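Lab meeting tomorrow. Please check the following:
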Amino acid sequence: MSSSLPVKEREQKNKELVFQAQKQFEASNEYKMNFNREAGFAIQILTQNEFLASCDQNSIRNAVVNVSLTGLTLNPALKYAYLIPRNKKCILDISYIGMIKLLTDAGAVKNVDAAVIYSNDKWDYRKGTDPYFKHVPALQNRGDKIGVYAVAFFRDGGFQFEVLGKEEIEKIRATSESWKNENARKFSPWETWEDEMWKKTALKRIFKLLPKTQFSEQLIAAISTEHENEMEDLDPETKYEKMFDEIQDANVVKEPKKETKESSEITESEEVKAEDTQPKNNLF
């Protein structure tokens, strides 16, 4: 789109483009999304962002159709999903809030928590046979970002958590086309919604650990969309290397029970391993 075009003219061009997706949108509209409403959001977003509007037109139409496939509105107030540019294409990018909504709506989990850890926060965690996680955010002067975590609470009382450090997050960010392209970086979600992208990265790790039997079609559609988006960011040689291994059933962690005779029968080597397990942070 040329910046010399008046706003009204750009808006009309974007309207014509978005409405080309109406037939396919409504054909896959299992979640009863209101096309006119979502089209209005899309037109507004494209008109305000000329770089996004200059992306491949087929990709813009496909991104609008993906709204109906995932059931996630483009309403900016809800922050479930966004239209963003990536490698000259427009994609539907699901936020960490949208991911949490999909997980809880599908019944895959009871609740999900995700947060960025700062250097002045108090936090501690341990993996293994007796895992736990604690995080107490500082109320002021939180310092620099040093990590992020996500915790999924299962309906049977168990939980699963993942913790990633700053270095690992930055390696993942470095694969993003929108981040690598300095001219487009200001439009990258890693630049405009940095905290959200950190949380989303931790949540995607949780996605891989959840039992597949609890995935709804809506959740699978969302994962497929995210999968396609990630593949766009990878070099051809590494496009399918270790990115989306088959999702394994999670080892559900339950609240510790009182020791019984049966549970006390533990081998000497296992006791040594348990004693040698040290917390990752000594703030607690």
Summary: The first helix runs from residue 7 to 19.
